[in-house]
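Why this split exists: single-chain examples teach little about how molecules sit against one another. For that reason, every record in the complexes split bundles all components of an assembly together and asks for one structure covering all of them. Below is a record exactly as it appears in the raw files.
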Amino acid sequence: MPEKTGVMTAEEKAREHIRMQNLPHIWCPGCSNGITTRAIVRAFEETGVDPDKTVVVSGIGCSSRTTGYLDFDTLHTTHGRPLAFATGIKLANPELKVVVISGDGDTAAIGGNHFIHAARRNIDITHICYNNSIYGMTGGQYSPTTHLGDRATTAPYGHLEREFDLCELAQAAGATYVARGTAYHFVPLVNYIKKALKHKGFSFVEVISTCPVYYGRLNGIKNAPDHLQWVADRSVTVKQAEKLTAEERAQKYVIGEFVQKEAPEYVENYMRLIESARGDNGDRNQK
Amino acid sequence: MNAMVETQNIRMMQGNEAVAEGALAAGCRFYAGYPISPSSEIAEILSARLPRFGGRFIQMEDEIGSVAAIIGASLTGAKSMTATSGPGFSLMQENLGYASLAEIPIVIVNVMRVGPSTGMPTSPSQGDVMQARWGTHGDHPVVALAPSSVKESFQLTVEAFNISEELRVPVILLLDEVIGHMREKVLLPDPGSLRVSERKKASGPREGLLPYKPDADGVPPMALFGQGHRCHVTGLYHDERGFASSSPANASALIRRLHDKIEMAKDRITITQGVGLDDAEVVVVAYGSTARASLRAVKDAREKGIKAGLLKLMTIWPFPAERVKAALGPKVKHVIVPEMNLGQLVGEVERAVYGAAPVTPVSKVSGHLFQPVEVLRVIEDAVADRVGFTNRRGG
């Protein structure tokens, strides 16, 4: 029996945060959700979150099945609504760290309203969006982030709508930490998630993800590694993007950090409101 | 001294205000909602009152998010509620079903107005009785209570919280606009005299914990977030561990248990009141503001020598069929069901009566409340056995 050194291997550390009994996961072979989940777990390890005081909330879709594999208090909610559930958790119990995992359909279509208002409130929630530009679980229909002209099972002639830039949306709505990474660029992705976890306020990390089974197959990408390479080829840093025209930039994934600022956080403000309301003796029915 | 205390507890208040006060008395510490007439006073009052109790109020972006937020808060242990009216109640159906399947205690108040759609926002109706029962998809159980006075609004709000905590179910409180906005004198009970229930909570080591394993009463102790249980909660069918399962045996056992836990508690959670039923030849079954008009009509009928009685339903779901059957004495010849709709609960009454006497609906859908005389006329018609009496439809 090998002597215990006290130093944990990477795998042992990861197991601390994963419900091994629920593996193997349900994702298709070649799906990038495993990479992104590993990045989240790595960020949890390296920021040292308390697993007994962290709640991970998800919506509905492929990405949202992540909560079943993470060893925290986890809440698998309804389609598009995880931020609204998370808002209740955080406001009711501010000592909890609240993380939301959701997809592009969840975040920007059915849950778009909750997304902009959570960002507007600057509530202390970290929202990680796996953006694979398609509804994978229901069979490859187009989403709010499907690229113009690309094909989906409901866009057999090519997609007609413009896509959302989720980071610009988050920024405009008031998020105070906004970053975009990809499943290809693992190390920077971990870094963004760590910074989001440490950030006070609404933090948003978009993760450009791959769906080789639907997006790839429908759009001439032959296999899973090619799909990741396709993401890498389209990626430019914020700095590189500055030199591009708007038209060129539209063809790229701009990766990096877009916003990092301090602003009053909603729950902290609410707790101050409680203090001042309790000090106000104007109401004779006060307890 | 006692007189002084009582004087202090006498208040002139509105039904909506009584709901807010009842919620606070029951221990509600979290409210999320979206403005809508005729329920908005509940939100306004709680936005001012909750912070003084250390509680939380948030106005969400819509009613869907409101129910989501109260479920999230309840998962951390806070007694939580929302209030709305018809259009908002429609939006709440999605997460109402979630709370039912995931067994999250919440209270949803629906101050009914005339629908469908935007309808008549400040006119009373009892049009959401079946939506309360069947509004969310799937074969779910439901509990709904309906007060007929300001005092009952207070009492039934406390009861709604108690039932939701004891059974881990969403409970719907159905007011009609008249009850929500009517002001009357109420003697608020001494807080110490109230029966207030708390949910059972999971305890013990997290290894081996089965957060959805029920006790003998069909209710699993609740594993709250932030207590180190590291539990999973999902709207998918799940096994006793809380993880998704689509095994046929598990699916059947789960949905049957959700019904059974309410069925087992049915007598305890059924609140009804009978007036003059023992010798009644005509029995009126009513709820909400309609029960007030009916009570007056029954009294007036008695003065005219007609043996009339009233069964007032305060629990309407699960439907108290046993109480309806028990209300039919040996002399009963007619059952009358006035409702501010075109006949919703009357079908349930018919099923319970099962041919023992003719059951007559009396509908009023003009956006006006029932006048006692309108119910009285039907009672008189019934005893006179006028031709074409049964199957009549009112204004």
